[in-house]
Amino acid sequence: MNDYYQDLGVSRDASAEDIKRAYRRLARKLHPDVNSGPEAEDEFKRVSQAYDVLSDPEKKRAHDMGADPYGGQAGGFGQGFSFSDIMDAFFGAGAAGAASRGPRSRKRRGQDALIRLDIDLAQAVFGAERELTIDTAVECGTCHGDGAQPGTGTRACDVCGGRGEVQHVQRSFLGQVMTSRPCVACQGYGTVISNPCFECSGDGRVRTRRTLKIRIPAGVDTGTRIQLSGEGEVGQGAGPAGDLYVEVAVSPHETFQRRGDDLHCSVELPMTAAALGTTLKLDTLDGKTDLEIRRGAQAGDVVTMRGQGVTHLRGSGRGDLLVHINVQTPTRLDAEQEELLRQLAALRGEERPEGQLAPVSHGLLGKLRDAFLGK
Ligand SMILES: [Zn+2]
Ligand SMILES: [Zn+2]
Fold first, then answer.
1. How far is the CA of 154 from the centre of ligand 1 (A)?
2. Among 102, 164, 170, 349, which residue's CB has the most CB atoms within a 10 Å radius?
């Protein structure tokens, strides 16, 4: 059988005032509006039932004599009453400090907006200025956000008398509880617009297209979001505007591939230039740049051009540009070229190479593995 004194944490000779105070303290701790813990709701029902019994002289007497007015069945006590309803029952209206008392404002903060912006790699590397055309809600120029035809205004709601809420009185174990619900006739505003603005139909804002200049910082990548405070939708009733987020998408480049803040590209090098060394003029994102190729360059060599990659979005400096060397073997030789190559092979004793197998880490497999691991 339930021991309701124990449930409320009071002694058997507790006064009516002690019982009330104990319940108030527990309701503050356990009401599902203020405590989202998994057991809070059941505990709240239990202490509400205990209070229901101990605050009622008839039921209390039955309990003291060993009977259980509810036969051990847990009822739904306390359900249907919000935390502020319970606090109001003890302390009077507004005691819980509920925010939703009285008419609510027609002004609302506007929604945030998100748009996608395609940029090219050079814009991501160096940053850029771009113009955006966006479709967004702005304050209505006819009613300036009131929602009423100019010169008509609003009138007090006759259902709630301008309070924006309607009160209901319920009898319950707490005594008479006054609960407030937003007025349905005026949606809680307390006022009604008799002649809605023709321009915005009473919303206080209209959709329009406008152009915005934005600065894209150097170093952005696909998925980076740029926040523009107050450039989102104007709120209902011309309330403060939300924020605009611009999500960047970087288009793939024909020759440069980005990995983090480094850029990778490949260059074709004739076999003779690979053997003799040379200086290449590369068309990088920074313009024509000289690249020194050492004598005896190998297929798969990577030459690093420091500081020619993507600007770091945070901090300073830039990543690197890594140039992968492809050695081109001539496929079509005229008679004279073939003769010269045969002479060279003979001079180098390479007419019949032996087919020496390379160790795994130095050969093609090693290079494939390094590429796979991003080395
Ligand atoms: Zn308007
Ligand atoms: Zn109303």
1. 13
2. 164
User: Crossing angle, helix 83-91 and helix 16-30, to 10 degrees?
Assistant: 150
Q: How far apart are CA 231 and CA 214, in angstroms?
A: 11
What digits encode the pLDDT tens for the residues 151-185? 888 899 999 888 888 887 777 777 777 777 888 88
Rounded Cα distance between 230 and 123, Å, is 25
Which residues, 6 or more positions from 3, have their beta carbon under 8 angstroms from its beta carbon?
none
- Residue 134 Cα to ligand 1 midpoint, Å, equals 21
Cα-to-chain-centroid distance, residue 293: 47
CA distance 132 to 128: 13
Q: How far is the CA of 207 from the centre of ligand 1 (A)?
A: 11
DSSP 8-state secondary structure symbol assigned to residue 196: B
Strand partners, 359: none
The mean per-residue pLDDT over the stretch 83-102 comes to 61
Per-residue b or e along 294-320, where b marks 16 or more CB atoms closer than 10 Å to that residue's CB = eeebeeebebebeebbbbeeeeeebbb
CB 282 within 8 A of CB 263: no
pLDDT of residue 95: 47
The pLDDT of residue 366 is 61
Counting every residue, how long is the chain? Answer: 375
Rounded to the nearest whole angstrom, what is the distance from the C-alpha of residue 33 to the centroid of ligand 2? 26
Ligand nearest to the CA of 147: 1
Taking the centre of ligand 1 as the mean of its atom positions, its distance from the CA of residue 208, in whole angstroms, is 13
Check the CA dihedral 348-353-359-360 and report its sign. Answer: positive
* 159 CA distance to ligand 2 middle (Å): 5
